[in-house]
Amino acid sequence: MQLLPCPFCGNRDEREFFYAGEMGKERPDTLNTVSDAQWAEYRYATRNSKGVSQEIWMHLSCSEVFALERDTISMQVVTVTTLRQIPT
Question: Which of 23, 55, 69, 76 is the most exposed place for a label (fewest CB within 10 A)?
Fold first, then answer.
């Protein structure tokens, strides 16, 4: 079992989290025609590179979404950043 850090609840069991995808993927512009190949690329293609990866996760207990940067080789978490919009 791996512990993942929720920026709101602290370290929790990995089974409490949902992996939402990698950071930096750009959704196709649906105002224009989008081919099946473009949708497939967006939906299913991943970098899957060794080393530091930036990902989006959701903690299912508190429903908060955050960015997690981790080393995919050692599984060590590098940074955790909330994606919550703080009203000004």
Answer: 76
Q: What is the pTM of this model?
A: 0.79
Q: Is the separation of the CB atoms in 81 and 8 below 8 Å? A: no
Alpha helices in 1-88 (DSSP H): 36-44
Residue 85 pLDDT greater than 80, yes or no: no
Query: Which parts of 15-77 fold into alpha helices (H)?
Result: 36-44
**Residue 86: pLDDT band by 50, 70, 90 thresholds?**
low
Q: Please choose, from the candidates 88, 78, 85, 21, the residue with its C-alpha nearest in 3D space to the C-alpha of residue 55.
A: 21
Question: How far, in Å, CA of 52 to CA of 69, rounded?
Answer: 7
Backbone angles phi, psi at 9, to 5 degrees: -115, -10
